[in-house]
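One-letter codes give the sequence; backbone shape is given numerically. An example follows:

. . .
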Amino acid sequence: MSHTCGIREARKRKSRRALLDAALGLLEDQSLSSLGLRELTRVVGMAPAAFYRHFRDMADLGVALVEESLGSLQGMIRAILAERDGDEERIDAVMEAVAEHVRHHRTHIRFIARERHGGVRSVREAIGAELGLLVDEVAAAFAPRLTPAGWPPEDVRMLAELYVDRMVTTATAFMEAQEDEREHERIAETARKQLLLISLGRRHWRDA
C-alpha cells in the first residue's frame, strides 16, 4: 500500500468512527428509526453524500453499532467461562464483567436496550444474532458437564438463554441506575441470586 493510500484509508477510518460516535450521542435521546441522515452528518461536519462512503444506509450503521456494542462482551464472557468452573465463581465474575462493560459502554447499552425491540428490522435481527452467539458461548461452557448427565442440546441451550437474558436485563438495569453505587450493589446482588436460583433449578431439571 502506498503512503497516499495509507493516509486515505486512515482518514476513512477516522470519518467512519466519527459517524459511529456521533450516532451514539444522538441516539441517547431518540431511536434509530427517528435519526435523520442530515442531522447526523451535520454533527460530524460531513456532507450527507459522504455518509454513503461508509454505510449503505442508517440501518447499516445501526448494525455496525450492534456488533461493536456486543462483540467485546462476548469475548469477556468467553474468557470467564473458560477460566472458571464453579457456579458461584462464574456468576460473580460475570456480574463484575457486565458492570464494568456498562461503565465503559453506557451509550452502547442504552442503544441495545432501545433497539432490541425497535423499529429497524435489520438492527433487531443483528441484536438477536449477537445475543445468539453469546448463548452459544454459554451453552458450550455448560455442555461438557450436562451432556453426559443426559441433557439434550435443546435443554442446554434453553438454560444458556436464561443466563444470557439475565445478563442483558442486568446490564440495562446498571445503565439506568447511572452512578448510584448503592443501586448498583442492589442490582448486582439481585442478579446474583437470580442466577444462583437458575443454577439450583438446573441441578434438578432432569428429575422433573
Summary: Helices lie at 3-26, 37-44, 58-83, 87-104, 106-115, 121-146, 153-176, 181-204.
